[in-house]
Amino acid sequence: MTQPEANAAAFTATAVVDMTGTVTGWSEGAERLLGWTAAQAVGRPAAELLGGPPPALPDPGARTELRATVVLRRSEGPALETEVTAHPWLDASGSPRGYLLTAPSEELRLRERDRAIVERAMRKAPMVLGVYDARLRSWWGNEAAETAAGLDLGTVRGRRYEELFPEQENDDYLAALNEAITTKKPVHRLSFGRAPTETYDRAWAISVWPLKDEDGRVEAVANWVFDMSAEHWARQRLAVLSETSAAIGRTLDVRRTARELAEAAVPRFADRVTVNLVPGITRGDEPSPRLSRTVVLSRTVALPERDGETDREITYDAGTAVARCLASGTPSVRLTTTATPEPRFGFGPASASDPARWPPGQPVTDDGLREEGVRSRIIVPLRARGATLGVALFERTERPEPFTADDLTLAEELSAKAGIALDNARRFARERTTALTLQRSLLPERMPGQAAAEVASRYLPAGGGVGVGGDWFDVIPLSGTRVALVVGDVVGHGLHASASMGRLRTAVRTLADVDLPPDELLTHLDDLILHLSDDLSGEPAEAGATCLYAVYDPVARSCTLASAGHPLPLIIPPDGPADVVPGSPGPPLGIGGLPFEVSEFDVAEDSLLALYTDGLTRARERASGDGLDELRRVLSGRPRGGSLQDACDAVFDALRPDHGADDAALLLARTRALRPDHVASWDIPFDPAEVTRARQLAEEQLAAWGLPEASFVTELVVSELVTNALRHGLPPVRLRLIRDRNLITEVSDGSSTAPHLRRARLFDESGRGLLLVAQLTRGWGTRHTTTGKTIWCEQPLPDT
Question: Around 634, how many Cα atoms within 13 Å sit in the side-chain half-sphere?
Answer without folding.
Answer: 22
